[in-house]
Amino acid sequence: MSSPLTVVTWNVNGIRARLDHVLTYVSDNEPDVVCLQETKVANNLFPRVPFMELGYHVSLHGAKGYAGVVTLTKQQPTEFVAGFRDDPPDTACRIANVVVEGIRIYNLYCPNGTKVGTDKFTHKLNWFRRIRAELDASETAQSNVLLVGDFNIAPDARDVWDESKFIGELHYTDEEHAVLNELLAFGLQDCFRKFNDEGGHFTWFDYRAGAFRRKRGMRIDHVYATKPMADRCQSIVHDREPRTWEKPSDHMPVVSTFSR
Questions:
Q1: Nearest to 203 by CA among 150, 157, 256, 155
Q2: Which residues are designated catalytic?
Q3: Hey, is 173 helix, strand or coil?
Q4: Which of 14, 94, 142, 253 lies 20 to 30 Å (CA to CA) from residue 247?
Q5: pLDDT tens for residues 162-183?
Q6: In which order are the strands placed within the sheet that holds 254-258?
Q7: Which pairing describes strands 188-190 and 57-61: parallel, antiparallel, or unpaired?
């Protein structure tokens, strides 16, 4: 029996600040696919060589600034699309779309939205609608598709440490829930909820006020799959260990496995 396909998604909050963490994690665990978000570096400055030396192909979509996504794959992708397929382009570098082993994997760093009611918040809502439109135009619910990454939305009360403190706030508004549900209505399933219905499992913790130690976080990093891929999902875990390292990312890796 062949080993499962392992897919890791991780917002690293700056690859240059966290390079040793990422290299250690990848070297120790040897996942088949690693989707990194918020790399904060232009393509020509991304440290490709250390990952190539570990046996990975590097698919980059980055620019100077706060965003950037990179997908590392043991197998060379048969297709790579940087950004949206149509205009206007993804100038903020939030989408890396690869095909590996017949599976299309969208690596997404979804917009934060900054503040409810602002132009940036409206942009966030429209950005989600564009992803849904792209799926409608290029895929079907029976295709082998994964959407993984930092979605910057906590889906329901189980995904925040105290719902009373989040209602109507960024990451937890009716508008954000509506566009996320619209995206999922394409035919996507939340792989984590296939195995765990409980609350209190978070992927992001503020650096302030001892949030990680006090377990005050949000689940905003997700693995969504079409039914054929969700049926193949064997496990999904939030790996807490890297969040305990010195000067960590505020996000932890989410590790999913799929039968081949």
A1: 150
A2: 109, 150
A3: coil
A4: 94
A5: 999 999 999 999 999 999 999 9
A6: 57-61, 69-73, 33-37, 5-11, 254-258, 233-238
A7: unpaired
Banded pLDDT at 89 (limits 50, 70, 90): confident
Domain residue spans in the chain? 5-258
Give the predicted TM-score (pTM) of the model: 0.97
Other CB atoms within 10 A of residue 239 CB: 15
| pLDDT tens digits for range 176-227 | 999 999 999 999 999 999 999 999 999 999 999 999 999 999 999 999 999 9
- Alpha helix (H) ranges present in 79-220? 119-138, 174-184, 191-195
Residue recorded with tokens 């792989």? 191
Tokens of 170: 């960024």
For domain 5-258, which CATH number applies: 3.40.50.150, 3.60.10.10, 3.20.20.20, 3.40.1010.10? 3.60.10.10
What are the tens digits of pLDDT across the range 5-63?
999 999 999 999 999 999 999 999 999 999 999 999 999 999 999 999 999 999 999 98
Calpha distance 116→204 (Å, rounded): 20
Could you give the count of Cα atoms lying within 13 Å of 177 in the half-sphere of its Cβ?
A: 12
